[in-house]
């Protein structure tokens, strides 16, 4: 006859619970696919902020970026192995963009725009600008757009022809990173570091309208400075904050408000008191926004109401981006966070250094750069 042993049953139950907990934790982990040290960063070296372009090369896909070490690096997207490198001459902190003919454009800290051929491993052309830029250049009909730190906007062809340029007002104090222009319906919407939002004809650079989005951009310290750090967002219709707006342009202001303008004439409809370092994410009728106080918010932009706000981190957030059915965010302490669509934290991973740019979404995983010079793929 077999006897029931309560102590043994309790131990077995606890073991089962721990085993299930470990299995759940394993399923909830964020995995590192590969990690590389791009910049060979030495102690006390300047931060490294450049970001790669994703380039197709035959059957392979490459990541191409210029590093703080003044070299252009080419990596295999799947394995993370370095395919080649070639000398640039100057450190770079800019984003890179893949052009339609296999070329890649980016900037350097000396104020040049550079176009390289990663397949040949050589510079195609280089031109001096009025100042450096750190944004990710934006592709437009085979050309590309850049905005410099002194509020100049340029359109270049892949061969180096300057199609046009626009000179904005200068700002005495600004963040090192800034907002990328948005291109929609043959119009360029640029938000400059002094708070000016400007609409330009995409093919000529002619000004359609200009609007100031910050009540006061004057500040003695960066911690009080209101500045645009995120690319604006266009919505054909927006219902929010008791307002219904057609052709809405959302302009996120870090340490300020989310300003809603008319994309047609630049008139302001309303603003929301929310500080954003990155653009909102639109998924159907839902809009997700992650703020600089660690909250993730969900809005229904058809019904015009906020569905929930949830504390995800104790630090400023960037994101989210959508990958593999989840939302992915980073905070300014170097953590990568995976959250479900209901705002519940699924997993987190701490990286060395800070993360100052949004993860790049690829089919294989998310590519993340840290200011310590590392480039990492996670999934």
Structure description:
This protein is mainly beta. 6% of the residues lie in helices and 46% in strands. It has a four-stranded antiparallel β-sheet with strand order 1-32-31-30, with no helix packed on it. A hairpin with a 4-residue loop joins strand 3 and strand 4. The longest helix has 22 residues.
Layout of strands and helices, then pairs:
Layout (H helix, E strand, L loop, with lengths): L5 H22 L4 E6 L15 E5 L2 E7 L4 E6 L5 E6 L8 E3 L5 E4 L4 E6 L4 E7 L9 E3 L2 E5 L4 E5 L5 E6 L14 E3 L2 E5 L4 E6 L5 E6 L20 E8 L2 E10 L5 E5 L5 E5 L8 E3 L2 E5 L4 E6 L4 E7 L5 E7 L2 E6 L3 E5 L5 E6 L9 E2 L4 E4 L4 E5 L1
Antiparallel strand pairs: 1-32, 2-3, 3-4, 4-5, 6-7, 7-8, 8-9, 10-11, 11-12, 12-13, 14-15, 15-16, 16-17, 18-19, 19-20, 20-21, 22-23, 23-24, 24-25, 26-27, 27-28, 28-29, 30-31, 31-32
Percentage of residues in helical conformation: under 10%
The chain-level structural class is mainly beta
- The average pLDDT value, as a whole number, equals 91
Number of strands: 32
Residue ranges: pLDDT <50 for 5 or more in a row? 6-26
Q: Can you tell me the overall shape? A: globular
Main β sheet profile: 4 strands, antiparallel
Taking strands numbered 1, 2, ... along the chain, how are they ordered across the largest sheet?
Answer: 1-32-31-30
As a whole number of angstroms, the C-alpha radius of gyration is 23 Å
Beta-strand residue fraction = over 45%
Q: What is the number of helical segments per DSSP (H or I, 4+ residues)?
A: 1
Q: Roughly how many Å apart are the termini?
A: 52 Å
